[in-house]
Amino acid sequence: MHSHVYDRPPRSLWANWQAALLFLVCLFVYLVATGSEAFAHAVTAGDKGYIQEVAGVKLLPFVYLGAKHMMTGYDHILFLFGVIFFLYRLQHIGMYVSLFALGHSTTMILGVYFNVGINSYLIDAIIGLSVVYKALDNIGAFQRWLGTQPNTKIATLVFGLFHGFGLATKIIEYEISPNGLVPNLLAFNVGVEIGQLLALGVILIGMSYWRRTLSFAQHAYTANVAMMSAGFMLVGMQLTGYFVS
């Protein structure tokens, strides 16, 4: 299944960018309010201390930590929002979300188990680019520029792999105990999937109401432009952090 190619409605350029600017201001306020930890994968200081200190099998705490990470992971949620933006059937939504979950889970578990990490700023910059990619895909940019539509299923899986590496890198930096490592990682992954389903449910409820209004046709293009701008902003923040750290 290919992504929906959206023809921009005849709205003024200023009106489009007004809405995009409002979105970016809200995102910026959120990032500032949540502190510097929000510039990478969201793991609070308290959670970081727990991961560093705990030893042995702790299934429920790691399920909670995984769910919390996904529910507060703005980069994941933005990408997920882009993936399901033009998906209307539950089987299609399930297929793409499953591909993302497969990629995310694989690299998160294997990355931590085999101690394979990537610089957190660089991997989060790539995750920001995944948001940009999905927004461009949603507005049909690749078909116009390249004359062909990239395989959206493969792209979702590949970017899922990068998203998983982002979290694996953080967990490695926090030096999780090898005692109970595999069960705790599996529990964390279960929590991530629970959080993903909860976030997806909220998004779908909001989208279902929005799609019933004329506003969806009027603002769908703008929403994806705003999402693309947010992705570029996240990339810029991460690359700035990489060069000044």
- Describe the largest sheet: none
Radius of gyration using CA atoms only: 18 Å
Q: Show unreliable segments.
A: 5-11, 28-40
- Number of E-state strands: 0
The chain-level structural class is mainly alpha
Q: How large is the count of helical segments?
A: 10
Helix content: over 70%
Describe the structure.
Helices cover 77% and strands 0% of the residues. The protein has 245 residues and is mainly α. It has one domain (57-244). The relative contact order is 0.20.
Strand-helix topology:
Blueprint: H1 13-34, H2 45-53, H3 59-72, H4 74-84, H5 90-113, H6 120-138, H7 141-146, H8 152-173, H9 181-211, H10 214-244
Helix pairs in contact: 1-10, 3-9, 4-6, 4-9, 5-8, 5-9, 6-8, 6-10
Q: Which keywords apply here?
A:
77% helix; 245 residues; mainly alpha; 10 helices; globular; single chain
Describe the structure in brief:
The protein has 245 residues and is mainly alpha-helical. It contains 10 helices and no strands. 77% of the residues lie in helices and 0% in strands.
